[in-house]
Structure formats: structure tokens, C-alpha cells
Amino acid sequence: MTDDLPELEMPDFDPKRASRAVRRGLFRTTSYVLAVLLVLGLTATVGSSLVQTRGGRGERMMDVLGTAFKLYNPGYQVVSGECCETTPLSMSFKVSAGPLRADSGGREPAVAGTYPISQNFFGRVDHLPLGNSANTRLSVKFYEVGSALAAKEEVRKALARLPADLLAVAVVEFAAPLGADELKGFLEQNEACAEKVVYERRTGSLPITWGDITWDRGPFAEDKEGCGVGLGNFRSWVAMLRDHDDRNLRSFDLSLDRLRKASREGLAYAFVDETSIGKLRKLIEDPRVRTIRLGDVAFDLDRP
């Protein structure tokens, strides 16, 4: 029976055809590998993003870290961007920040730069800009609250040497801390408005300083409590913090204990006023004022 089988002949070896077949095989294999790697990469990126942003974690990151960043830089005007940019190992958002200056008639101060704030996959602060390097003249004044100072007469002389219409940003320090109602009464009587309020005396270190829109996503934001009285907003933010936030807060030279104490007591030790030299001359005469520390001045050429 084997004699009846046709004799099979091996084709002649063609190097060109073999080379083309090898290239096609390598191409298909490489394509499959790249496709698998692409799918795995997309799965890891999208999956990581979903894991990191689940349950509103992105919004909470901005609430905690974005607000803490503003407390970390009280001499700056800070605006938070949108949430969030993610990688497989981190999540971040950007803030725009520029020094708070006398802005010549209420115009917003120029933004100095844009900075990323990020936390790693495990929720810890991963990148933190500005802070101790942000030593503007106004920033330094916060460290001086409660320190030795010149007599009121020296402050009067310094203010007298400046034009009354000169616009200024100054830290007005109280002789004794004022409660919320006392602060509101003081501001109304002096027709003043607090850009930010210092709720802690921590001489030589950065005190807790809060503005009406420091937490611009929370209740009472955008000055709804009245000019310079943002204590309710401050207390609401502190109330939403959890014990596990303490480690991140310490990266911003804060702690839960200090924040809770300042929030509970609600005592104003100083405030930032953006006004004219003429009005500061009147403020220094108030017996409740301990001193005034100038942070910046700018003459408004548009004033009549």
C-alpha cells in the first residue's frame, strides 16, 4: 500500500520568502505585545484614576490640601484650579498664586505663577511649593505678631511721612484678642474690612490666618458672613477634618490640635487691612490696636 502513495517533494528553499515570513511573524508578535501593553497601560491609568478619585477623594483633596496651602501662604492670593490630574501613582491639581499687595483701587493683584500640589497613591502630600520660600514683606509680618514693637508714637510718625491717599496692605494687631462679635463691632466702627484674620499668636512662626474665601467651596464662602468675619467658614472646614489628615497638615506647618483650638476659641489677634494710609492713621488711635505693620504700599494714580 505504501507503494501507491504519491511521492512528496520538498520545495526548494527560498531565502526571500523565508525572510518575508519571519518579518511578518515578528510584526504580528510585536503588534500583539504592543496592543496588550497598551491595554494594560490604559487599564492601569484609568483604573488608578478611578481608585484615587472614588467617593469624592479628589474634591476632598482640594478641600484639605488646597485650603491648607492657603493657610501656609497667608501673604499670597491663591486660586485653586480644577480637579484632578492623575497618574498611576499620584493625583494632583494646580493653584495660581501671587503676593497680596496694595492693588491700586481694588484690581486683583498680578498672579506670580502656577504651582502643582499632589498627593501620592496612599493619600500623602507628595509635592508642596512656596511656603517658607514665600518671604514677601507681608508674609514676614505674620511672623512678627506678638513680638516686640516700637511705641505707637513711632508708628504715627512713620504713617505721617506717607501721603494720606497712598494705598496700603497692613497687619493691624490688637492689644488683646477680640471675639467674633467684638471684631465685627471693631470693623464696623472703624469702617474697615479684614482681608484675613489671624486666629493665633505664634510669634516667630506662622500663625493660623483665615480669609472669607480661604475655603471657597465651603459654607459661608464669598463673604456671606459679612466683611472680615469668616469664623463660621473656618469652623466648618476644621469640623470636616479627620484625625488621619494630621500628617498631611503638618507638611503645611499646621496641626489638628492647633486648628481645633483656634477654631473653638475664635479669638482674633490681628487682621489684614487693605486701605489708605489716612485710614491707618485713624486705626492706630484706637485703644484696642497694639500696632500696625505695613506690608505693601502703592499710590493709586486713578484717584481724584
Number of distinct beta strands: 10
Run of helices and strands? HHEEEEEHHEHEEHHHEHE
- β content, as a range? 15-25%
Mean pLDDT equals 79
Terminal CA distance: 120 Å
Q: Unreliable runs, pLDDT <50, ≥5 residues?
A: 42-55
Largest sheet entry: 5 strands, antiparallel
Radius of gyration computed on alpha carbons: 31 Å
Shape: elongated
Tally of individual helices: 9
Helical proportion? 25-40%
| Class derived from helix and strand content | alpha+beta
Counted up, domains total 3
Transmembrane segments: 32-51
Keywords: Membrane, Transmembrane, Transmembrane helix
Report on the architecture of this protein.
Keywords: Membrane, Transmembrane, Transmembrane helix. There is one protein chain. The protein is of the alpha+beta class and about 300 residues long. It contains nine helices and ten strands. The chain has helices spanning about 15-55, 55-70, 135-145, 150-160, 180-190, 230-240, 245-250, 255-265, 275-285; strands spanning about 75-80, 85, 90-100, 115-120, 125, 165-180, 195-200, 210, 270-275, 290-300. The longest helix is centred in the N-terminal third of the chain and has 39 residues, at about 15-55. It is elongated.
Key attributes of the depicted protein:
304 residues, alpha+beta, 9 helices, 10 strands, 37% helix, 22% strand, elongated
